[in-house]
Design goal:
Elements: E1 10-18, E2 21-25, E3 31-35, E4 41-51, H1 53-66, E5 71-74, E6 83-88, E7 96-98, E8 104-113
Antiparallel strand pairs: 1-4, 2-3, 4-8, 5-6, 6-8, 7-8
Length: 114
Amino acid sequence: MAIFPTIKILTGLTVKNIKIANRKTSAAGYPMSRARATITKKEFTLKYVYVSSADKATVNAFFDTNQGLSFNLDNPDPTDTTIFTVIFGQDSLDWVYDNQGIGRWATSIIFQEV
C-alpha cells in the first residue's frame, strides 16, 4: 500500500474524532439519537506552507495516482507512531503561491480514516 510522502514543513494540524449518529425528533418534539457505528474515525487536515516546487510536484503526483484509493499516512502527531489507512477527503488540491518572500507554495490537505 502506498504511503503519503513526508513533507518537511508541516505548519498546522487539525484532528477530528468522528462518530456518526442517527438523529431525529419525536412527534412530541423530543430529540432522539443513537450511534450508527461503534468505531470512532479520524479526519486530519494538514496545513503546509513554504513548500518547494519539488515537494509540490511529489504531492501532486501522489494525489493523481492515489485519488480514490486508500493509502497509509504516518501520524502527523510527533508524539504518536500510529500509521492510519486513509483516503483523500477532497477532490482537488489547491495551491497558493507566495511570491512576496521566498517564492514557496502553501496548501491544506484533508485525509479521512477508512
